[in-house]
Design goal:
The chain is mainly alpha-helical. The chain contains five helices and two strands; from the N terminus they run ααβαβαα.
Length: about 200
């Protein structure tokens, strides 16, 4: 297995970056690989001085195809249940990027406890420490935000009684105006009925 992995590393070292014909000349062309199909294409003919095309010789050995550098088959994991189904001799776990920090921390702890290799986390202890630190900082920020909000509410409540007094006065003024309008309407009714 180690020999095959070394052989794969050697072939990948000499493998060029395959890209579409003339993609380095024209910005509208993508950097992805497309097979040259033109009737006069020098790249298709494999002439000297032109970019290399994809060939079977650049393939990795069949037994190590799709394996990690360490020789383990990568398996995507996003829960403890999925982690328990991983075979630690043949497979290595990759924690999904969609998993949050808190859950990721639990998964890392469980994987180290079970002896499963994590392929996308180099140092599980350092990772756990950094997550703990981040969570503490977030909790502190949240406490500060809540304290600010309560202070602001208290200040607003102190201001409210004075505002209520002003509103009461304006209500009285409005009610007096309404009374005057009502009296005027009654007088108008009396005047109109007499005529």
């Amino acid at each position: 297995m180690k020999e095959l992995l070394d052989k794969r590393a050697q072939t990948k070292r000499r493998k060029p970056h395959f890209q579409m014909q003339d993609s380095h000349k024209l910005s509208r062309l993508t950097q992805k690989w497309r097979k040259p199909r033109g009737i006069d294409s020098k790249m298709r003919l494999g002439l000297k001085g032109y970019a290399r095309s994809v060939e079977v010789g650049f393939k990795s050995p069949k037994d190590v195809r799709g394996l990690d550098k360490s020789g383990l088959l990568p398996v995507m994991v996003s829960s403890v249940k999925e982690l328990e189904s991983v075979n630690k001799e043949k497979e290595g776990a990759i924690i999904s990027s969609a998993v949050g920090q808190k859950k990721k921390k639990d998964l890392v702890a469980k994987a180290t406890e079970m002896g499963i290799t994590l392929l996308n986390i180099k140092d599980p202890k350092a990772f756990a420490a950094s997550v703990e630190k981040n969570m503490k900082e977030r909790a502190d920020r949240k406490k500060k935000r809540i304290a600010k909000a309560t202070e602001k509410k208290a200040k607003e409540e102190k201001k409210k009684p004075a505002e209520k007094k002003k509103e009461d006065l304006s209500d009285k003024v409005l009610s007096e105006d309404e009374k005057a309008k009502a009296e005027k309407k009654e007088k108008d009714k009396i005047l109109t009925t007499k005529e």
